[in-house]
Amino acid sequence: MLLYIFRRLLNVVVMLLVVATITFGIFFLVPWLQHTDPVLRYVGKNANPVAIAGIKVKLGLDKPIYEQFWLYLKGLVAGRSYSNGPDTTWCPAPCMGISTQTQTPVWGQLTGDFPVTAWLAAGAATIWLVFGVGTGVLSALRKRSVIDRAAMVTALAGVSLPVYFTGLVASALFIYNLGWLPESNPNVSLGSDPGAWLQNMLLPWITLAFLFAATYARLTRATMLDVLGEDYIRTARAKGLGEGTVIGKHAMRATMTPILTVFGMDLGGLLGGAILTENVFNLHGLGYDALNGITKNDLPMIMGVTLFAAFFIVMANLIVDLFYAVVDPRVRLA
Q1: What is the domain class of 107-333 according to CATH?
Q2: Residues 73, 79, 84, 89: is their CA dihedral positive or negative?
Q3: For helices 299-327 and 106-128, angle between their N-to-C axes, nearest 10 degrees
Q4: Which of 162, 265, 297, 302 is the most buried (most CB within 10 A)?
Q5: CB 211 within 8 A of CB 163
């Protein structure tokens, strides 16, 4: 088991290094190979030559590409300084650059906005796991019944409708027409007003969970139907075990493996920023930072969100691998 965990941790380190290298290549190596000046992405095309030269020295873009890569990796591990004569800015580790919009380290801005994304992902994940998996199990146990058909039609609608559509429709219905919920307020926090914060997050949770719950319902139903046809399930029933024991202890354990795989990827991706949901409901999380960085050409912010999202996806896969060893001990030999 310890060797299994060590191999997975080693894979995480290698994967993060690969992601960091690819990210650097996209933003720095590709412009260099195309003989374009990457500093123009930081100062804009209308900047004067003096400003361009100063920014190039401060960001280290006047150095060879391999030295730029070394400074980039060093900044992620130990931090780095951006200096142009008396103008020196220290970026503590993990340094993902200095935002061109706020002139502050990207890491600090991302960690400040991360709780919004984390709460959004955690709340939505709880809802879609409970309702998605529960609906899938019920549909499998009531195959071809009215409940099964209604659940699958609803799931098909959830998979087909994008978040920006369901989010706008839900806002128009529950906020502006019925008045059950207040308008979204990005300044409300859990610590300042828990009740208002809960009302502020309820609709984004449900809207985001509706999309994923549909996928999990279909996946759970299909997997459960396959598992219920296995010989060991028939054997368990022949031994006189109760239906609750057969489903809860035997069938669900085999069903959880594909669910864990999908859940790890989905949750890791959401922790990197739910761009559409945050944009629809005006939530200032990592998705808001990514969209803001794209619209304002803030490349350090875009790079930071990319690395941040990659980290959570890789860590989510690591956690899924460890849960595999608990759900199915045979994977420890893999």
Answers
A1: mainly alpha
A2: positive
A3: 40
A4: 302
A5: yes
What pLDDT score was predicted for residue 46?
66
Q: Could you give the residue ranges of the DSSP H alpha helices within 63-145?
A: 65-78, 106-128, 134-141
Strand pairing partners for 80? 91
* Per-residue pLDDT reduced to its tens digit, 190-242: 777 788 888 888 889 988 888 888 888 888 888 888 888 878 888 888 888 88
Q: At what angle do helices 146-160 and 134-141 cross, to 10 degrees?
A: 140
Q: At what angle do helices 252-271 and 106-128 cross, to 10 degrees?
A: 150
Paired tokens of 330:
């045979």
Cα separation, 231 vs 326, in Å, equals: 23
pTM comes to 0.83
CB atoms within 10 A of CB 192: 9
CB 58 within 8 A of CB 87: yes
Are the CB atoms for 222 and 152 separated by under 8 Å? no
> How many CB atoms are closer than 10 A to CB 290?
25
Q: Strand ranges (DSSP E) for the chain?
A: 80-84, 87-91
pLDDT the model gives residue 233: 82
Q: Would you say residue 161 has pLDDT above 60?
A: yes
Contact 207, 277 (CB under 8 A): yes
Q: Where are the domains of the chain?
A: 20-91, 107-333
